[in-house]
Amino acid sequence: MARRRRLIYGNFKMQLGIAATRAWLADVLPVLEPAVGVEAVVFPSFVCLALAKAAVGGAPLGLGAQDVSPHGEGAYTGDVSASMLREAGCSHVLVAHSERRRYHGEDDELARRKLRAALASGLRPVYCVGESLEQYDRGEAAAVVAGQVRTGLEGFTPEEVGRVVVAYEPVWAIGTGRSARPEHAARAAQWIRDEVATMYMREVAKEMPVLYGGSVSPSNVGAYLTQPGVDGVLAGGASQAPETYLGLLEAAR
Predict the structure, then answer these.
(1) CA end-to-end span of the chain
(2) Model-level pTM greater than 0.85?
(3) Which CATH superfamily is domain 6-252 in?
(4) Which residues are catalytic?
(5) pLDDT tens profile 127-162
(6) Quick check: helix, strand or coil at residue 196?
(7) What is the mean pLDDT of residues 222-251?
(8) Dihedral through CA 47, CA 243, CA 5, CA 110, nearest 10?
(9) Residue 196 burial (CB < 10 Å; 0-12/13-18/19+)?
(10) H or E element, residue 22
(11) 3-state secondary structure of 129
């Protein structure tokens, strides 16, 4: 059986501004080589998307946005629509990242509306799910993740769900230096697929890409990529320095 494609996604968060993103691209793009079976995508801030699009050109690096409005257009100050993101060069978008949930009160219902907006405009959404430390310690991780999947992905067609990437990001492992054990990430990937199989079809669940995110580094990424059901990573800090992002890609190759 052929190896599944490895997805190495990098979330710049609110870390790299215009000058820093331009420098990152200048360091990475000249040495970035196409790799069979590996998909590289980064998520700069909104203000850097135009310069990133111009710099990337035909290089094997996809662009995504860190958030999307549930609205197509209108008087929604501060929102950025899916069609605007497409025009800015995005192919992907993050939805319901734990930092959006924590600091902006986003929930699974809003996530579903954002997923619908992204899919309708042809973007590939990366739907983020994961439990808090308190939920993990109480043994509720499986139920929490299944509930987020169930509510967020309710009401779509199997074809639409097949275009969604799900990123398992335990909240207690994001930016803390404390990563989940690789076998825990594999279990979470199975929880996600079991819920999708129940809602839709087992074939949809089988083909859906599932990522792990949370204190990923070049030194530990290999342990995640060899786990059954884990198709790649969504890295934060490790993606923000050119050398460490390239290290993630090298491990995936």
Answers:
(1) 17
(2) yes
(3) Aldolase class I (3.20.20.70)
(4) 97, 169
(5) 999 999 899 999 999 999 999 999 999 999 999 999
(6) helix
(7) 96
(8) -30
(9) buried
(10) helix 18-28
(11) strand
Q: What would the DSSP string read from start to end of 48-106?
A: GHHHHHHHHTTSS-EEEES---SSSSSS-TT---HHHHHHTT-SEEEES-HHHHHHH--
Structure tokens at 140: 């509720």
Per-residue pLDDT at 124 exceeds 70: yes
- Confidence band (pLDDT; 50, 70, 90) for 1? very low
How would residue 33 be classed by pLDDT, with cut points 50, 70 and 90? confident
SS3 210: strand
Q: What pLDDT does residue 3 have?
A: 63
Tokens read off for 110: 């809003």
- Report the alpha-carbon distance of residue 89 to residue 81 in Å, rounded: 13
Q: Are strands 92-95 and 62-65 parallel, antiparallel or unpaired?
A: parallel
What's the DSSP call for residue 213? -
Domain segments of the chain as ranges: 6-252
